[in-house]
Structures are given as C-alpha cells and as structure tokens.
Amino acid sequence: MTPGPEHFLVLSAILFSLGTLGVLVRRDPLIMFMSIELMLNSVNLTFVTFSHYLSSADGQMFVFIIITVAAAEVVVGLALIVSIFQTRHAVDVDELDEMRG
Amino acid sequence: MQHLIWGVLLFPLAGFVVNTLWQRLRGDAVAWIGPGSVFLAFICALGCFAWLQGQSEATRYADEIGWRWALAGQFRLDFGLQLDTLSSTMSLIVTGVGFLILVYATGYMSGEHSFTAGRDGYRRFFSQMDLFIFTMLLLVLADNYLWLLVGWAGVGLTSYLLIGFYFDRPSAVKAARKAFVMNVIGDWGLMVAIFMMFILFGGVDFRTVFSHAHTLPFNGTVITVMCLLLLVGAVAKSAQLPLYTWLPDAMEGPTPVSALIHAATMVTAGVYLVARSYPIYQQSPIGLHTVAFIGAIGTIFAAGLGLANNDIKRILAYSTMSQIAYMFVGVGVAVYSAGIFHLLEHAFFKALLFMGAGAVMQAMHEELDIQKMGGLKSRLPFTYWTFLIGVLAIIGTPGFSGFFSKEDVIGAAYARASHGDPVLWIVWALAVITAGLTAIYMFRLFFLVFHGQSRDPGLAAHAHDPQPSMRIPMAVLAVLSVVGGWISIPGVYNEMEAWLSSTLHRYPVRGPALVPQPFEPVSLILTLAVTLAGFLVAWQIYYRRSPSPQRVASMAPGLYRFMAHRYYVDELYELLIVRPIKVAASALNRFFELDFVDATVDFAAAAVTWSSRRMRVAQTGYVRNYALAILFGAVLLVGYYFTGLGR
Q1: How far, in Å, CA of A95 to CA of A88, rounded?
Q2: Number of folded domains that form chain A
Q3: Nearest by CB to A20, which of B615, B623, B631?
C-alpha cells in the first residue's frame, strides 16, 4: 500500500493535537517548548504534503520560513527560561503568575 | 529682470533663517546679516522697478507663477507673485525704509536695550525683524488672497513677537496679547471675505476675482458685505476705529519696531488691501463711503487723543492712526493713488519721527513722559533739526513731502464732494479740521521736548546725540521727508497717479470714475490756513508762555480729562465686551463646566474603573489558560468557516 496524502494529513493532525495537549497540560517550560516545536513541525508536514501533491513550491517556501522563525523563537525562549531559572530557582510555569489581573 | 521679484521675497527669509538657526553668530555678524539681507532685497526691488519703468503702460505688470499650490476639482491655486506698479511701490517702501530702520536698530539695540530681553536679545531682535519684513513682502507681493492672508497673519505674528520683545515686562506681554487678539478679529473678516470670493468666483487669485467682480450686482448686498468684511481686516490691521486700541499699547516694543511695524509698514497694510481690492470696492459705493467715513472720523478722533497724551511714543502712535485715517479717506473716495502716495510719504516722515523719539529716549534714560523733558534743543542739535523736519512734513508745510500727499487726499475728497457726492463734504471738513489739530499736537510735542527749560535737569544732564549708525538713517529719511513729495505737485504734474494708473486700469470696473487728480485751490488754501492757525495755537500755548500742563488742563477740565482718558474707549470696551464675556464664562464654569462637562468626564472614568475591575478576573496569569483561550478561539473560527456560516 502506497501512502496517499490522507495518511500524511492524519499524521500531521495527530502530531498537532499532541503538541496542543502538551502545551496545555504540562508545567515544565522545556516540555512546553518541545510541544510547540511539535505543533510547528506538524504544520510543516502539512505544507510539504500539499506542496508535493499539488506540484507547487509555495508550501516549501513557507516551511523554510517556519523553520527559521522556530529557530529564533527557541533561542529567545531558552534564554528566557535560563534567566528565569537563575532568578527564581524554579521552572514551573504555574509559579510565574505575576501578570495576574 | 522681472524675476528679481523672487529675490525681494527670499533674501529677508534667508536673513531670518541664518539669524535664527546660527546660534553662535556674533553680534556684529548679526548686525550685518539683518540689514544686509534687506538691502539685497531692496536692490532686487529697484531692479523690478526699473523693469516696470521700461514697459509700456498697458503691459506694466508681470505675473510670476512659482508652482501649483492646490488643485481640487475646479479650484486651482498657484503660488505666485504679482509684480505691478502698486506692489513695486509697496516693496520699495518695505525694503527701503525697512533697511534704514534696521541700520538704525544696529545702533539702538546694541546698548542696554537688548540686554534687558534675554541672553541673546540682539540676535532674536534681528531675526524677528527679518521675518517681519519677509511676511510683509509676502503680503504685498502675493498674487492671490490666500497667500495675502498668510502674509497678513504673518505680520500679525511677528508684530506680536516684537511688541512682546521685552518679555520680562508684564505690560509688554499684555500689549502683545491685545494686539494679537485685535488682529485676529481682522484676520477673521479677511478670511470670511475670501470664502465669499471662493463661492462667488470659484477662485481666490486676483485675476479671477477682479475680472469677475464687475459681474456682481452693482451696489448689491453681496458685494457690500464683502467690502465690509475686507474692511474689518483693514481696520484691525491699520488700527482704525473701532479696533485701534492695540496700537498705542504696542509702543511697549523697542522703538525701531514702533518705527517699522507700527508706523511705516504693517499698519498701512489695510490701505494696501483696499487699494489692491479696488475692483471690488468700485462695485460698492456704500463700501467706499464706509471706508471714507471711518477714515474721516478716525483722523479727528486720533488727533484728539494725541492732544492730551504725555507719552512721546504714544503721541506718535496716535498721529500714525490719524495719518492712516487720511490714507483711508484717500482710498475711500476712490482716489487710490492719493492714499498710496500718502502711505509712501508717511513711511518717510513717521519713521524719522520715531527714530527721533528713540534718540530722545536714549538720551533721557528711557524716559517717555514729555512733561519731564524740555530744553533738549541745545543738547541734541542733530535730533532737534531732523525731528523738526519730520514735524514740518507731517503737518503739511508747503514744500515738504507731507504737504503734497495730504493735499492730494484732501483735494480728492473735495473734488468728489463737489462733483455729485455731497455726503463727502463731511469727510472733507473733518480732514481739514484735523490738519489744524495735527499742527497743534505735533508742535505741542515738539515744543515740550526741545524748547523751554529742562523740567528734570538731572535726567537731561548727560543727554547727547546718538551714534553715527543711528544718525545716518535719520539724515537719509530727513532728506526724503523733504524731497519725497516732489514726485507729484498738485496742479502741475502727478507722477504717482500716472505710475499707479496702469495697475488701476487693468481690470474693468464700474462705480466712481478713476479720474486724474484735479487741483483744488480752495481746499488747498483752507487747509493751509487751518494748519497755520493750529501752529499758532501751539506756539502761543507751548512756546510763548512757559507751558504748564496743569494750566492747560484747567482751561477745559472736563474735555481734557475726557481726552486724557482716551475718551474712555478702553473702559467702554472693558464694560461692553470683556466684562460680559468674563461673566458669561464664570457662569458657564459654574453651571455647565461642573455639572455637565466634569460630570461626564468623571462618569466615563468611573465606568472604566468599574468594568475593568470585573474583567480583571480573566487575567489569571497562567500561560495554559491563555493558550486554551487561543485554542478555543481558533476552533471557533475554523468551525465558523468549516460549517459554511462565513460564506
């Protein structure tokens, strides 16, 4: 059986849902970051799938942009986590609720 | 050659920019740039004048279009300059007399005068003077009413700045504010007139307006209202009745400012406006009559004020008002060349008189009260003789410049009155009587300052003539005050009238005919007799007998008090306008401001506080709550489009 587009899309949807769930339920910022990466890459997978089956390079271009942005985002995010850890000695996002109204 | 007109406008602007932006400029550099830029403008104006001289009468004008300023539907407006005989005359006056006054100011302002006004008052003074000359030139050179208005408001602004030059004196700041408010009333009148032109003619440039003005109903309501609105502007700018009270207070500014702005140039802008708008005024005899009557009443009104004042500069301010009223009479009887002629001569002798007053003030340690002066003839011989020339010119002594121009104006009123316009006899009579009053108050000033015994010997102990930089402009203006009138001798030849006629015949007009100035010997002899009588009265009271203000006042105590209090006009305005506005304002403050405006504002603030306290609950500070909200929103949006509701 050769995999068709629907297989890739279903896989992408599963990965996206897992990522979302991870962001919502986990308290460790590192794990949350990994979940966000998972969501981003599931979207990449969707792009690549459509790009392949529609014979268009547009989707590939978006993937490049997303990879770049994700790398930048990780740099900033990790720097934030490190600095929070240095000042608070705790990495539990539920303790970071200073923005409460 | 005609393109030199741009130089006339731009050199003073350049002088202003350099003097303003180059903060480290030394004092003597400022003293070169300020008058120098105006001198270059004067050279350019002379070039334009020569070019106009070379043209034939029919083509004696040039429309210099700079660039398209605005284009909206049918409306188009260029930024352009109008070079014709009228604007050439005005630009020569502004730059020529302006240059002389700026040279005078380099000497006058170099002493204590500039130190009392901030750290670099000297530089500020010259940059503002250059700005004034630039805006004044914009006013007289613009070829449309919109840019005329820009210059009009610009001279109002610079006049405000320069009256308030000594900003550490509360009286100067108050005077500046008063002048500004009164001028804005005039700006309003001019602005509404421009709106009317736009609606009626579809354009505000001179060519469109003037070539269509004669199509409106002759002496109709519309054209008369437009004339009166223009007159509101002219009256406020030229300090005529009833908006004149700012001019005497404006004497708080430095004396060169009084000479340039409040005597020679800016206050004559109203006369220029009426003369420039002649196709509109020709269409409305009622408008012309109003101008003539405001002028005639103003001459005698201001002369009376000058009689009872003791402040050397204020007397000159009232005489300015009176002389400008003469110009209004000239343009009001539709002999525009007479009004402009008197404007030209007045610029010479009034600038000279103010310069003399400045020299006296400098010698007398800033004393302005003529009752403390006296006997200055021997101490200030140069000032004495130049001032005498100025006085002889202003009262219209035969041979001096004021004689020819004033005779032109009074003769014009006489001619109009005797040729089918009997109402103007009143105008003529007032103008003749004022000629006598002028002689009285000018010689009163002259005798009290220069003759008799010194009434305050301590003050006059070290009085001496001013330095050469002030003396040279005074000498030049003294010569001009004598010979300036010889360009037009009544009954022999009238160069002024011939020169302006190419401007005054450019557009088709109706109304009173633009006749050549007739020579009126009856009027001439009567005026001279009245002037001589006035001189003899002043001679008798202030020269023969040692003058004592108390004794003069006791001759007619009621009248004297009435005039010394300036007819109580300031008090009247206070009672009729300022007081009601203040009462209304405080009532509004109590009832409207507190109960409505403040209450509304307070309610809005309370509503925001209340609702934000409720909504703050949503801000938990937990990342996952926000993420969930985003997810929820995304699901809703996707669902919205997925189900086809969004289509």
Answers
A1: 9
A2: 1
A3: B631
